[in-house]
């Protein structure tokens, strides 16, 4: 199928090259951004609320205009100076409201065309690329759709839906012990997280001349084998020993994700009680019904045909790849075609599940964007439920997660990546010899992220920062934004220093005055925040970092039916890009109907 070796090689190049992602693929060993006397691991300052989930910037925002102009310049220079290594390139920067930027470079040589590329039509947002492993994202969306309908649980054993599914758990050494398959089941979750222990591409090719060559290794058809049928894959799984026991360690597996697509078809049929005559009998039919059609993805499909050939991007190197039929056993793992237009819709719905095009709920998305495995050997890579996850510093010097899926199929290379903390993503399908769409995507993140961070701080300042006071002046609060965190100072309620009551130690402000400061942490609900009084070594847990918040975040009692450390705001943020929003109100529900209004509005 799709070899992972080139991908690992180029990821290694990213790690060791200082200019990739601004040189941010490093250990987070610099001094604390808020308390220079403490190591960062002893602090736990919350990020700004993800305000862009509901109110993202538009392409007309002055910061976004500057960012996208820089991106366009980078892409044009890269395309024009790359000696033809990228033949077609389509790029979009996307928020939950749609694209901030789209760029298309190169020309489409349609399938079956004998035209010279320079006389072919220019690449547009409707040009279709083979997505390779990015296909797996759509497969997992299909799994989530079925889960939302109650048709499956990710923890279900694969054998529940494919009774013929058996596997060989023992190792190669004589001392390898294992329990029965019933006590060590491979689950749908294992398939989707690459934790099944199934190998990369089974049936494996025969490396007959080892160690003289590795001819016969890799994915079909390069390993000398055709694309397998479902029965071929199931038979190979039954007798080929697992890479490692289920659930132990990720092993990237097209075999696993191919079987997942077949299991989803069976789960749908089992849930409805109907066979293939009434319900989809193939993965391609199922994903079209549940994902492509509801989202309006008109350019997403699995085969080159006479009807779509004029829109297919066909690389000059190994152009026959465009005609591959992955068959139903492997279509979900890497056989999909799609266009930039479709990827914009798809990425936007992942960022904003409230979109009318979305097939997933906000609850599903919130539970999807988590790590399933952290690689203990380093501190910047993780894997999720189909996601590969990396950590990279934002413009405030703090590590943030980026969730991505990379696809590589000979001369097709694609990436779809999300930055959930600031609710934007990058879609980047490409064609040509250049093998690293991920590098292009992350160079774009490197350019855009500082502007997104600044715009988010601008919005947070407009919504929350300033001097707040009650009508009688007996209650006050000063809120500020500092290096990606909201802080409250001088939080006085009916004349009482509430921060002192909560036990928070003062910090040195000047030589003659002392102030108290507490971070504000979002609850994940719009405009609702908690005073982060579990941090800064509270109760002697100075060495505990974020654990000190986790332990003490909700242990401050209730007053008048509300937590004593909770505040919320009301008032629309409409018009924020022009610096004007309606009057906002700060509410302290533990004080009953206490309200504060901003006193320093110009």
UniProtKB/TrEMBL annotation:
Residues 82-447 form the Beta-lactamase-related domain. Pfam families: Beta-lactamase. This is Beta-lactamase/transpeptidase-like protein. It comes from the Eukaryota. Gene3D superfamilies: DD-peptidase/beta-lactamase superfamily. Belongs to the beta-lactamase family. It comes from Wolfiporia cocos (strain MD-104).
């Amino acid at each position: 199928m799709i070899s992972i070796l080139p991908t690992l090689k180029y990821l290694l190049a990213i790690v060791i090259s200082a200019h990739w992602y601004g040189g941010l693929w490093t250990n987070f060993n610099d001094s604390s951004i808020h308390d220079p006397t403490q190591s960062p691991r002893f602090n736990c300052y919350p990020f700004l609320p993800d305000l862009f989930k509901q109110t993202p910037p538009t392409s007309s925002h002055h910061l976004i205009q500057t960012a996208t102009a820089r991106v366009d310049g980078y892409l044009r220079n890269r395309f024009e100076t790359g000696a033809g290594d990228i033949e077609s390139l389509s790029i979009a920067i996307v928020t939950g409201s749609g694209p901030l930027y789209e760029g298309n470079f190169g020309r489409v040589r349609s399938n079956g065309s004998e035209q010279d590329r320079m006389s072919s039509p220019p690449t547009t947002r409707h040009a279709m690329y083979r997505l390779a492993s990015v296909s797996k994202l759509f497969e997992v969306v299909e799994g989530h759709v079925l889960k939302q309908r109650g048709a499956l649980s990710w923890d279900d054993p694969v054998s529940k839906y494919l009774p013929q599914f058996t596997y060989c758990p023992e190792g190669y050494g004589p001392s390898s012990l294992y329990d029965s398959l019933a006590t060590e089941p491979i689950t749908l979750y294992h398939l989707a997280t690459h934790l099944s222990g199934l190998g990369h591409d089974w049936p494996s090719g025969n490396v007959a001349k080892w160690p003289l060559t590795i001819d016969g290794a890799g994915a079909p058809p390069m390993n000398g084998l055709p694309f397998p049928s479902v029965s071929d894959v199931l038979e190979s799984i039954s007798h080929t020993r697992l890479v490692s026991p289920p659930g132990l360690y990720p092993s990237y597996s097209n075999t696993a994700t191919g079987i997942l697509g077949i299991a989803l078809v069976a789960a749908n049929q089992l849930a409805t009680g109907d066979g293939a005559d009434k319900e989809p009998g193939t993965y391609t039919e199922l994903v079209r019904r549940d994902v492509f059609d509801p989202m309006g993805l008109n350019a997403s499909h699995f085969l080159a045909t006479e009807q779509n050939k004029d829109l297919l991007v066909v690389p000059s190197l190994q152009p026959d790849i465009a005609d591959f039929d992955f068959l139903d056993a492997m279509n979900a793992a890497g056989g999909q075609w799609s266009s930039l237009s479709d990827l914009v819709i798809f990425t936007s719905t992942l960022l904003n599940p409230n979109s009318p095009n979305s097939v997933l709920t906000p609850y599903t998305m919130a539970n999807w964007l988590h790590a399933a495995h952290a690689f203990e050997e380093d501190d910047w890579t993780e894997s999720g439920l189909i996601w590969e996850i990396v950590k990279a510093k934002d413009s405030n010097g703090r590590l943030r997660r980026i969730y991505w899926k990379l696809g590589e199929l000979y001369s097709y290379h694609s990436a779809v990546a999300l930055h959930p903390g600031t609710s934007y993503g990058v879609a980047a399908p490409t064609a040509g010899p250049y093998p690293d769409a991920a590098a292009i995507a992350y160079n774009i993140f490197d350019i855009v992220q500082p502007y997104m961070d600044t715009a988010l701080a601008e919005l947070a300042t407009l919504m929350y920062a300033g001097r707040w006071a009650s009508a009688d002046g007996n209650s006050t609060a000063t809120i500020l934004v500092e290096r990606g965190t909201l802080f409250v100072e001088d939080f006085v309620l009916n004349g009482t220093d509430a921060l002192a009551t909560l036990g928070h130690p003062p910090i040195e402000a000047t030589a003659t005055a002392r102030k108290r400061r507490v971070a504000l942490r979002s609850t994940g609900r719009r405009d609702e925040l908690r005073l982060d009084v579990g941090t800064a070594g509270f109760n002697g847990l100075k060495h505990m970092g974020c654990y000190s918040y986790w332990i003490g975040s909700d242990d401050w009692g209730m007053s008048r039916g509300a937590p004593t450390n909770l505040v919320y705001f009301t008032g629309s943020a409409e018009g924020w890009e022009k610096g004007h929003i309606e009057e906002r109100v700060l509410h302290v529900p533990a004080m009953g109907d206490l309200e504060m209004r901003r006193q320093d509005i110009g």
